[in-house]
Design goal:
Elements: E1 9-16, E2 19-26, H1 34-48, H2 53-65, H3 74-83, E3 87-90, H4 92-105, H5 107-113, E4 116-121, E5 126-129, H6 135-138, E6 145-148
Parallel strand pairs: 1-4, 5-6
Antiparallel strand pairs: 1-2, 2-3, 4-5
Length: 181
């Protein structure tokens, strides 16, 4: 089961069919152009000698089963990741509750852990990343607008879980200066 405190779990905003929702997802599942990502990764493996020939073959076999993601298969992609429990939908209320709970006990960790890392808009073909893993935006579909950029202003006020139900800003993410969080 996904946990917001797992190292590789991101908070991801996704807009699809004119509806916005928050998800928790493993960042490794969010390389949308799988073929391009895997070709680059394989080249790095060869250059740096990271894996044995057997491990390379396993990687190639696994990656050949993966499918790139874009606006044409978004529903299938989201359903598959949720079925595999690699992604789960989470409400604004649930995120607020988690934020409030953890703020009390781990205030120094909460700011960075609860930053939304990706904003993926399947309707307008946009992919924004505020991730320390810079290459996520690089592997968005080529015909999409993709950028490592602070995207907080794109999120409607009702979906900003870092504001409590009374409108108090709990995290002040609007003041971020770099998208590489």
């Amino acid at each position: 089961m996904l946990d917001i405190y797992e190292e590789d779990v991101y908070i991801v905003g996704i807009k699809l069919d004119n509806e916005f929702a928050w998800y928790l997802a493993y960042f490794t599942e969010l390389f949308f152009d799988v073929e391009r990502h895997d070709a680059d990764f394989l080249a790095k493996m060869n250059t740096y000698g990271w894996f044995s020939e057997e491990k390379k073959r396993e990687f190639i076999q696994k990656s050949s089963m993966a499918k790139s993601v874009d606006e044409t298969n978004a529903h299938e992609f989201l359903a598959k990741l949720q079925d595999l429990q690699h992604m789960k939908k989470i409400t604004v209320a649930e995120l607020r509750e988690e934020l409030a709970l953890h703020s009390e006990y781990h205030p120094e960790k909460v700011f960075w852990r609860f930053i939304p890392r990706l904003y993926i808009d399947f309707d307008d073909l946009q992919f924004y990343s505020m991730s320390k893993h810079e290459d996520l935006a690089i592997y968005a579909p080529l015909h999409w607008y993709s950028k490592n950029e602070i995207f907080i202003e794109k999120i409607k006020m009702a979906d900003r879980y870092w504001y409590d139900e009374f409108g108090k800003n709990l995290m002040n993410y609007e003041k971020l200066e770099s998208p590489f969080c």
